[in-house]
Amino acid sequence: MKIRLNKHDQKLVDDVRSNIKNAYELANFRPAVAKSIASYATKYRNRGRKQAIRRHPFKGLCEKSKLSLKREDAHLDELDSKKGYEG
Fold first, then answer.
1. Which of 45, 3, 35, 37 is nearest to 17 (CA)?
2. What is the DSSP letter of 19?
3. Do 77 and 49 touch, CB atoms closer than 8 A?
4. Is residue 35 classed as helix, strand or coil in its secondary structure?
5. Nearest one of 77, 75, 53, 50 to 63, comparing CA atoms
């Protein structure tokens, strides 16, 4: 499932992907470089995530249909925040 981005954010992502590809191709030990990049990106993804989860806890219900959802489906809202659990 592709995450929807506005034009500005998509440009940022494209620039970063290009830089990552260049760094990977120039690296002496590619797996270590790839792992370091992934760790760094994960650090930024997780910033504020715990606070957001506390502010907006998963209630176990679809926002549109009000049907029950499994806990493992809570990530769906992150992937498409406009659509939320509706999809």
1. 37
2. H
3. no
4. helix
5. 77
